[in-house]
Write a structure and sequence with these properties.
- There is one protein chain.
- The protein is α+β, with helices and mostly antiparallel strands.
- Helix content is about 25%, strand content about 35%.
- It has a five-stranded antiparallel β-sheet with strand order 5-3-2-6-7, with no helix packed on it. It has a three-stranded antiparallel β-sheet with strand order 8-9-10, with no helix packed on it. It has a two-stranded antiparallel sheet with strand order 1-4.
- Strand 6 and strand 7 (about 125-130) form a beta hairpin.
- It is elongated, with a radius of gyration of 26 Å.
- The N and C termini lie far apart (about 85 Å).
Length: about 200
Amino acid sequence: MNSQIIIHLCRRDLLVTCATLSILFSSFQSFSQTPQLFSYQAALRNGSGEVLVSEAVVLRFTIQTSISEISPVKYQETQNFMTSEFGLINCTVGNGNVVQGDFTTVDWNTGVRFLKIEVDAGVGYTVLGVQQLISVPYALASLTSVNTVNAWCTAGNSDMTEDNAIGTADAAALNFKVNNQKSGRISPTGSTYFG
């Protein structure tokens, strides 16, 4: 077998192994909490449409409130890359060199957000595009918990049954607090106190 083919196969197996380990480690991490970042991938080309092969580039990511060039910036970071043989870069936004803001404090609940991507291949930044950020699975999952809480708050006990109740599952008293002050108690024997 040709030595170049063997090297290519070994390199491919190494990449598959690294990719598998990366997926495993990131899945272990995902059980602990919702990550405060998101993935981004791009294939970079020059103005003539030719792939930027193995080139050093800097990407600047800006989270803003509109597509406009003068939109208020909520967060901005840069990241340095070496493109692959196919011009690819892979990264996680929220994990770069912070220029402005704090990714963990971006208020995602007060309207739409846009991601502006700029690249600098050594001649200054060029805008690649501005795209509205849309829902991701973590965000969609949070809607369920918010709706459950809101449904309970607005419906009160109207849908309570023997199998669907608020209370304790042991012989302990059920205690109530308002503004972190004791405001009531239901004992295991049924005596109540409120006030």
